[in-house]
Amino acid sequence: MSINAIVLAAGQGTRMKSQRHKVLHPVCGKPMVRHLLDAQKAAGITRRIVVIGSMGEQVQAALQGEVEFVWQKEQLGTGHAVMQAAPLLENQDGITLICSGDTPLITSESITKLLELHREQGAAATVLTGIVDNPFGYGRIIRGEDGSVLRIVEEKDASPDEKSVREINASTYCFDTRSLAQALKMVTNNNAQGEYYLTDCIDILRRQGKKVAAHCVDDADEILNINDRVQLAMVENILRDKIRLHHMQNGVTLVDPSSTYIDIDIQIGADTIIYPGSMLTGSTVIGSGCEIGPHTRIQNSIIGDGSVVMQSVLLDSTFGSGVNIGPFAYVRPGSTVADKVKIGDFVEIKNSTIGEGTKIPHLAYVGDADVGNGTNIGCGTITVNFDGMAKHRTVVGDNSFIGCNTNLVAPVTVGNDTYVAAGSTITDNVPDGALAIARERQVIKEGYTAKLEARLRERGSKKVRG
Question: Looking at the record, which segments are called Pyrophosphorylase (predicted)?
Fold first, then answer.
């Protein structure tokens, strides 16, 4: 039996006041619609159809190759949106799940339970519901004595008794595919808004004597949808709390959870400590026994076991075990740092490989470089990688010592077991085991200070006389 999903993402989302499509706004590091699609995939749904309209090209670009698309050229209601996908499901047996693309908190577990109940009840349709403290504005679920759904009553049409019902419609539905196709043909736009409503399918099936069931989620937060920036922030806070709870339950210490920001796909090993003000984003993986922060940002990076990162920014890079970074280090994309490396304060690394045990303690820039094992890069060292038109690489071998305030003008290679004298500007390759000195010889002028002061006094007296 095939299980399909239709995701409604054709609305204009005007309340977001954004040039970005509503369902592409990120929630904890992932577009809100992708949260839903991932949950559907985890629940075993392989065919997913996304209905797009306003700014639909953005959704196509973001999800291309993952889903099928149909266009709703005019926004004429939720029923009309599903009608655009109906031709793809004609004459099929199976189940069709229908969800709104702005509900990122629905879990795969809830989708699975919805599908299971639908099968068990032999229902033509099953509605996902939730119980909330304040149901104002939502459609109420009116059940019969056997627990089946008699009707969904909108706020404006509800009687006082119906308004007291706290179980609401989550706008997520499970349909027998053939029953859905038949009901859609009977839906009309004979209402004040002139729109085709998907909920009319529920009424149609019920009048035909077919069973309509409902599954109530355990956590009503799951069914929250996002229409504006306020709701976006609220949903993100809910999900962040769940993410933090997950990591703490798995052996991670968050010194101040409320000031720690962890995206949905982050992996963190046990016995790692995350200090306040830290942000772990993208697809970052943190090993076990690490110390991260305070005030550290790590994006799309891998950090090995037993590493320490203090008050630094690490982007799109890989770090081995036992590294010590910061404070105030900046590692830019494309860098690979081996085990037991020290990257100290005010050091910037970009698109470079740093070998095991190498130390770059402070105030250095290493860009487009390959540095070997056990090398020391002195304070103030700069790899001069850009000639105004192109970038060039610097290579430094194993167990070398680069003195303070050295310029390595790329392309240049410094061999193994070498020394570069402090203050040198190296423009030629340095062979293994050599000492390179590239600076002016020191000159001392005895008595210079007294002569200078005498000239200055004389010059001052002339100005006064003038």
Answer: 1-229
